[in-house]
Specification:
With 490 residues, the chain is an alpha/beta fold. It contains 23 helices and ten strands. The relative contact order is 0.06.
């Protein structure tokens, strides 16, 4: 008669060869012979995890741990909780795990991961740091730690962690991109812009143009900042509307280097750029143009211009006092339609593209205390996704429903005393126009706002307000309400 160990070995052989049903039968037979065998319960947990039956996997591994709390049983359990997204359960094992396995890298790493996902950043940092003292070769440990350092504005530490990642995994695009982001956040643009070239948006933009103009967009005519005074330069957009508005300030610098500048931009922005000739754009393209109908000598993605020109902190914040405008006729038309009041006119927006970052979305009802301030009239600039929330704001005029492009939006903005909005393209448009703007930031701040939030380097007219803790919009709104009331009194 076979021993229990023989049955387990047979099951394990089936398991290794992917015969999961046969392995399951063997493991269950082993348990009928020995129902206190922790190893078999763990193997059943692993098998169920492979089959996607996470709840059964957890049940089996919990049983194994109750019999014998081995470290690798906890690893299986934590993987099941991670698959389920139940990080609370991992954190709930903290005291037990730390008592049994205080020097186990995997245990410490998983506790760090749990607290990272629970947005308890300080505890997550502590566990990652402890884990990396045990195994300093863990790329994922350093990478996760770098992210947490960045969220907590410990940017020097983030840069150091990412440099270690770069040594562990040299020439990795993702690592170098985030290193660039961290360096730029601490305003080291001289080095950060070089790594910023690894961004996905640039790769995508280059790929599109190479497919559109395969005989003209090549690596050998990618502009690197040299003087091309007798040549035509094609600049093409990448990323979102806000990035394009922000980086359009560098178009005049590119124009100084070439004879003719052609700019491919998104259609909602094209008319706005046509009306701002001071940017130096000779031709704007917002629809498909066949290759035989376009002529250019060099090309570059828009966000690569600062790197091509070798800009640093000393010269990157050009035109911070406004560089876009709109005609008085459009402004007057918008005034007659919406803004013909003696009250203080304040625009608001709470949501951008949630595909990129849901943390920037402010619940519309959080603006209610602001709208109740006397002698003010609030206007919603919310368009498309999120515009249905306007109905929650009594007395707020819905301008957003009529805004179809950035020219109309600019004309409406020109009638405001103040714009208050989340981190979105509207903030960049108002900033570029010189409109007084208060940008409400989540706790995790985008790189472009840097670490000193007492001022905005990109736009002199923009003021920054950040959450004091993750998810706390009420505290920000109380601060903003106090600032509005103070301004009205003075």
């Amino acid at each position: 008669m076979p021993e229990v160990s023989d049955i387990i070995n047979i099951g394990f052989s089936f398991h290794q060869n992917g015969k999961l049903d046969d392995a399951m039968n063997a493991y269950e037979e082993a348990l009928r012979m020995d129902d206190k065998n922790a190893e078999v319960y763990n193997l059943l947990g692993v098998l169920k995890l492979q089959q996607g039956d996470i709840d059964s996997a957890i049940e089996y591994v919990e049983k194994a741990i109750s019999i014998s709390p081995e470290s690798y049983f906890f690893e299986t359990l934590f993987q099941a909780y991670i698959r389920k997204g139940d990080y609370e359960k991992i954190a709930g094992k903290e005291d037990y795990v730390m008592k049994l396995f205080p020097e186990n890298f995997s245990m410490l790493f998983n506790l760090g991961l749990a607290y990272k996902n629970l947005k308890q950043n300080k505890k997550a940092i502590m566990y990652y740091e402890r884990a990396l003292k045990i195994d300093p070769s863990s790329y994922q440990g350093w990478f996760n730690l770098a992210h947490l350092y960045s969220v907590e504005a410990e940017v020097n530490n983030a840069v150091s962690a990412l440099k270690i990642c770069n040594k562990i995994k040299p020439n990795d695009d993702e690592t170098e991109y985030f290193l660039g982001i961290a360096l730029m956040r601490m305003k080291d643009y001289k080095h950060g812009l070089k790594y910023f070239e690894k961004r996905i948006a640039r790769t995508a933009a280059l790929g599109i143009e190479k497919k559109t103009y395969p005989n003209k967009v090549r690596e050998d005519n990618l502009w690197k900042g040299e003087n091309i005074k007798d040549k035509t330069l094609l600049v093409y957009y990448e990323a979102g509307f806000g990035d394009v508005i922000m980086f359009s300030r560098f178009l005049p610098l590119a124009k100084k280097k070439c004879k003719k500048l052609i700019f491919i931009c998104q259609k909602p922005l094209s008319q706005l750029f046509r009306e701002n000739r001071q940017l130096g754009i000779d031709e704007i393209i917002d629809t498909f143009v066949p290759e035989n109908m376009i002529e250019f000598d060099y090309h570059i993605p828009l966000l690569s211009i600062p790197n091509a020109l070798g800009l640093s902190e000393k010269d990157i914040f050009v035109l911070s006092d406004g560089y876009l405008g709109i005609g008085s006729k459009q402004t007057e038309e918008a005034k007659e339609k919406y803004f013909n009041t003696d009250k203080i006119k304040i625009g608001i927006k709470w949501q951008g593209n949630t595909y990129y970052d849901s943390d920037r979305v402010i619940p519309a009802e959080k603006f209610v205390p602001l709208t109740q301030i006397e002698n003010t009239q609030f206007y919603s600039f919310q368009t498309f996704e999120g515009s249905e929330e306007t109905s929650k704001l009594e007395g707020v005029v819905d301008v957003g429903k009529d805004l179809v492009d950035f020219t109309q939006t600019a004309a409406a903005l020109n009638n405001l005393e103040l714009l208050i909005c989340n981190d979105t393209s509207l903030a960049h448009l108002a900033g570029a126009m010189g409109i007084p703007t208060w940008v409400i930031l989540p706790y995790e701040v985008n790189w472009r706002w840097h670490t000193d939030l007492s001022k905005c380097d990109w736009y002199d007219n923009v003021r920054l307000f950040r959450q004091k803790s993750i998810g706390d919009w009420n505290g920000v709104m109380e601060e903003i309400k106090g600032e509005i009331e103070k301004a009205l009194q003075s």
